[in-house]
Structures are given as C-alpha cells and as structure tokens.
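User: Hi! I'm working on a homework problem where we have to compare a predicted structure to a textbook description. Could you give me the structure for the chain below?
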Amino acid sequence: QVQLVESGGGLVQAGGSLRLSCAASGRTFSSYAMGWFRQAPGKERELVATISRNGGSTYYTDSVKGRFTISRDNANTVYLQMRSLKPEDTADYYCAANRGTNWARPSYWGQGTQVTVSS
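Assistant: Happy to help. Predicted structure tokens:
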C-alpha cells in the first residue's frame, strides 16, 4: 500500500513559479514510476509528467514542455517544478504512483492540490 500526499499548490500570477511536492509512504517508493496529472474545471484529467523508477526517464505533455520539471529524490518525494505559469495551467494537480506502465490506470492516487494562476 502506498499513500501519497501532495503539497505546494496555491495562487500565483501568470509568469510565476510553484513547486509541488508529493510525499509517498511505504518502503517501496523506488518500485513505482511517478506522475503528475491535472484536472481543470469542466475538463478531463490529463497526464502532465512522469518519471521512471530510477529517475532516468521523464515524459511531459506538450503544453508544459520547457516550463515544468519532474524529479524525485531518495526520501520518497516527487516534485513538479512549474515555471512561466499560465492561466491555462489552473487545475487540481494529482500525484500518482504506477507499478506498471499503463498511465491510464495508475496504482495509487494522491488527494490533489489546487493551483490557480491569475492573469
């Protein structure tokens, strides 16, 4: 069992930065690929970024490439550094842990943290 707790969301002006954190419980953190999803009001949840188990491989959706950076450490935490934020980045952001490779059905979800970008 893995529990995920996100933090770091908030209100920021366009062009600003935020860093989201996701703390994972359990001793098997390194067994999971980690990802960040987001869901804007009235829209479907979308995959934003993923990082492999050893941190050597990352993926970003096109709309955040060059602005967001996903990383993980050895202390059971995964981060999403967000720069040059835009109003369209406003959403609830969710951390996910994936034992497999199918990001359509991650193994575990966090409860979410809200990010609001004002214009």
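For your comparison, note the following. The mean pLDDT is 95. The radius of gyration is 13 Å. Good luck with the assignment!
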